[in-house]
Design a protein that fits this description.
The complex is a heterodimer of chains A (337) and B (550). Chain A has 337 residues and is mainly alpha-helical. Helix content of chain A is 70%, strand content 1%.
């Protein structure tokens, strides 16, 4: 109620606030320097780009998740959408013999449709977001196994009906995941940067982004201000699932086959990136820049630890520690106003 | 928070002296009275049950209480009156242990002490029934379990309780105030009046010596209110000290033995029975009421909006309403009488059972907020935090962004936001309405209630308006800010009409050219600007609905 107090207290807490604002950047810089010192090969550009390449899919999925979170939703199906996109892309090329552009268009369309189903479940039928997307997550995780009888898709594989598949991966398709721009920057990193830039612009600089956040902050207020809140929430899920299928395309073109286990950890990594992003610039809300920084933060940490011979099975533990720390930073410390 | 048992203080999850005495010793200097069992024998009126002297409380630079003195005797109903922001609720929060006073003493049954927490206040025998009745009990539990909530929560209580023993004990507690609710009903299915009775029953069962009722009739029908009054009289006869907060004069006349008026954090007047309400109202506002309709002339301006043969609900008496250009019309009436429903129907959020709206000569049937806003029909819904404002971490939660939200499409047709445009409108609103803020980038949570409401009003004055609908625009707004708001509402009448719904008659008189009373979902004429203003208050007050069927 009586809040002129903050006006007086503002200068005193500002230093603290500034520290919090850039805390993750400072930690990231410290980490890079530390790994560099411990293992000079860490700082080589090939390694740095391999980190970015490794996080590009997580970052793209995380951007989608953070857009649904901005509209006070949650998309648990992104991991499954990406995984089924891997299978769908492989199936389209290997079984149906489609070429690269057709495959990509088909997969992205499939992603958009899944997003539409998610959105309609949530907006039309009123199913709570977590439950609706949990359900589609299970549904897709199971569905992707059915056409091949649970096996990975490779050229020359035998389908459940006993026939041998006619096609193979279109070489042009592999460009997405395996080529490098100017022989240095992986194309998937360029795609990630483009997605991040577009999404950042949408969410931070346009009125549509403002309305997404307004809906997330107070849906009633947004509705009473004339915003078509249901349409916006529907769009959030369509965008999220489409980005997830884009992530799946990158995975497919990197792996070069329809791997049933692809995308296993993508959901949790993407959600973690979005949540770590809350702490970036002390925004305390999902945002695109934060999500990308969050994904890179985890990527750098894992890459560095791997270089220092940390065993692979510690990775989830490390991610968990970062997530707990970031959330504590966001919500806990110095929250009192 | 308060008496709902959510207080984390480990010392007391509800010690009250019906049974085992465990957990009470470290509370409130053991002040608990033993003499006040609800008995039919009236105690001596002279025994002061609770008194406060020189209570001061500041929140930052705002002095909510500046030396308040108040005493309530056992067996007495004291009405605490005061405008919004006078300090009533702060005083209640101090008495119920929610806030600690900065200075002053609290004396309970002759002993001075402090109330460290809501549970301490409760253990000391002060029970508070808050306006928000959803906190009077726990959803998911039955009526019986809610009646026994205090006993069930007591650390020293029995580990195993049988359904039969709960029902038996609940029946005993219900009998204390003749509560005849089905004991198996879930708390969430109860109406506000019933929840309130449960809270009172719990207070009586806990042998509270002081009962504080905060705006208890605000959501009650007349029959429900009468029933509440009967219970209050019974408790009074049993020797309970009752502090009754309301600004509904009709209620106070019916129940109060004494009226105490607060203004600016102090007690500015005390009125013994028979209470001189006009004088009390004058003391409350600090001046005699000044109505907006000074001349009482009937407006001849062109009609902006009209309602013909409207039935808000099937079976209600149909009514007509004409709103003229430049006119401010207030609708008053109790909660649930249909004021909000009428505003929501005009804004396109609900449909009429019957009848037509006309806006600028054209039939008006809005499909929803988007269409209404496009056509210049704006609504400020009640409860600004829930209906209008964004939490501070969201982009657009600043003053500038709050004002801009409904106008984004018109201001930024390309989709690209330009912060300068928003900030300009925000700065203009800050200076025009006298909003106390550092600048247009301040978030709304940093502002006081009155300043928040000014921002919400500025939002809807930032675009050309035909019909402005304001639902309880002065809720939680202090007197000074209310004057600014009224000036802003009355000042910017460029051909539009304003319709205000308020349950507060004084507010209606201060702001409106014309006042209508809504009862049972139908409209009746009230004051027309003629006659003394207090007469008008009385007239409007006497128009309270006889019955209201939910």
């Amino acid at each position: 109620m009586t809040d002129l107090t903050t006006a007086q207290a503002a200068p005193r807490i500002s230093l603290f606030r500034e520290t919090r604002r850039y805390a993750l950047f400072v930690l990231l810089a410290l980490m890079v320097v530390g790994f560099w010192y411990a293992q000079p090969a860490f700082i080589r550009s090939a390694n740095l780009f391999s980190i970015l390449q490794a996080v590009s899919v997580v970052a793209i999925l995380g951007v989608g998740v953070s857009i649904t979170m901005a509209a006070d939703g949650f998309d648990l199906s992104v991991g499954s959408v990406a995984a089924s996109s891997v299978m769908a892309a492989s199936y389209a090329m290997v079984v149906w013999q489609l070429d690269a552009p057709e495959t990509m268009a088909l997969v992205l369309l499939m992603g958009a449709l899944i997003g539409l189903v998610n959105g309609l479940l949530i907006v039309r039928l009123g199913v709570p977001d977590l439950l609706a997307t949990l359900a589609t997550m299970f549904l897709l995780a199971g569905l992707q196994l059915i056409p091949t009888g649970g096996r990975s898709i490779t050229a020359g594989m035998v389908l459940p009906d006993g026939s041998s598949v006619p096609g193979a991966y279109d070489p042009a398709f592999l460009i997405l995941g395996r080529s490098r721009l100017f022989d240095t920057i992986p194309l998937s990193v360029v795609v990630m940067a483009a997605v991040a830039l577009l999404a950042w612009f949408l969410m931070e600089r346009t009125r549509w982004g403002r309305v997404f956040y307004a809906i997330g902050g107070n849906e009633t207020a947004a509705h009473l201000s004339g915003a078509p809140t249901k349409a916006y929430r529907l769009w959030a899920y369509v965008i999220s699932a489409t980005l997830a299928s884009l992530g799946g395309l990158i995975v497919a073109s990197r792996v070069g086959r329809g791997d049933v286990s692809a995308g296993n950890s993508l959901l949790l990594d993407a959600v973690a990136a979005s949540l770590i992003g809350y702490a970036v610039l002390d925004k305390r809300r999902p945002h695109v820049l934060g999500t990308v920084v969050g994904a890179i933060f985890v990527g750098v940490l894992l890459n560095g630890l791997t270089m220092l011979n940390a065993p692979y099975y510690t990775q989830d533990f490390v991610k968990g520690v970062v997530l707990v720390g970031a959330l504590a930073l966001t919500f806990g410390l110095g929250k009192k106003r | 928070m308060g008496d709902d048992g959510s207080d984390p203080a480990p010392s007391a999850c509800f010690a009250f002296p019906t049974g085992a005495e465990g957990g009470r010793q470290n509370l409130f200097l053991n002040l608990h009275p033993t003499q006040l069992k609800p008995s039919p024998l009236p105690l001596a009126i002279s025994a002061i049950a609770v008194s406060v002297t020189g209570i001061e409380k500041s929140f930052g630079p705002t002095r909510a209480l500046a030396g308040a003195d108040l005493a309530v005797a056992a067996g007495e109903v004291v009405a605490l009156m005061g405008a919004n922001g006078a300090g009533k609720s702060t005083l209640v929060k101090i008495l119920s242990g929610t806030h600690a006073p900065d200075a002053g003493t609290i004396t309970l049954n002759g002993k001075t002490g402090t109330l460290a927490s809501p549970s301490a206040a409760k253990a000391a025998g002060i029970a508070t029934v808050h306006q928000a009745t959803d906190q009077a009990g726990a959803a998911g539990l039955t009526v019986a379990e809610n009646l026994l909530l205090d006993e069930l929560c007591r650390p020293s209580g029995r580990f195993l309780v049988s359904a039969r023993s709960i029902r038996r004990r609940a029946r005993e507690i219900a009998a204390l105030i003749d509560l005849d609710l089905p004991l198996d009903l879930d708390f969430v299915d109860l109406r506000p009046a019933e929840r309130q009775l449960i809270a009172i029953a719990r207070a009586v069962a806990a042998k509270a010596s002081v009962l504080i009722l905060d705006e208890p009739t605000s959501s009650l029908s007349t029959t429900e209110a009468d029933r509440l009054f009967a219970i209050i009289r019974r408790l009074r006869a049993a020797g309970m000290a009752i502090l009754y907060i309301s600004h509904r004069l009709g209620d106070l006349a019916a129940i109060a033995d004494r009226a105490v008026v607060m203004r600016g954090g102090r007690i500015v007047g005390a009125f013994a029975k028979p209470i001189d309400f006009p004088a009390a109202v004058a003391a409350m506002i600090g001046r005699t009421l000044e109505a907006a309709a000074h001349d009482g002339k009937i407006s001849t301006a062109p009609i902006v909006a009209s309602i013909r043969g409207a039935r808000l609900v099937p079976g209600a008496k149909p009514f007509d309403l004409e709103l003229r250009s430049g006119e401010v019309v207030a609708i008053t009436g109790t909660l649930g009488s249909g004021k909000t429903r009428l505003l929501r129907a005009l804004f396109g959020l609900e449909t009429l059972a019957e009848g037509d709206f006309v806006l600028d000569g054209q039939p008006w049937l809005s499909s929803g907020p988007a269409r209404s806003i496009k056509n210049g029909v704006f609504m400020v819904a009640e409860d600004r935090w829930q209906s209008s404002l964004l939490p501070p971490e969201v982009p657009g939660a600043s003053i500038a962004g709050t004002i801009a939200l409904p106008h984004l499409k018109r201001w930024f047709p390309s989709g690209l936001l330009r912060a300068a445009r928003e900030r300009k409108v925000g700065s203009e609103a800050i200076s025009r309405l006298g909003i106390k803020a550092r600048g247009p980038d301040d978030t709304l949570d940093e502002l006081s209630g009155g300043n928040q409401q000014k921002v919400v009003l500025a939002r809807w004055q930032a675009a050309p308006c035909r019909l402005l609908l304001l639902d309880e625009p002065f809720q939680g707004v202090d007197v000074g800010a209310r004057a600014d708001l009224i000036a802003a509402i009355r000042g910017s009448q460029s051909g539009s009409a304003t319709l205000i719904a308020t349950s507060d008659t004084e507010e209606a008189l201060e702001v409106a050219d014309r006042i209508l009373v809504m009862r049972n979902h139908s409209l009746y004429e009230a004051g027309d600007g003629h006659g003394s203003l207090t007469d008008q208050v009385d007239k409007v007050e006497s128009e309270r609905p006889e019955t209201f069927d939910d």
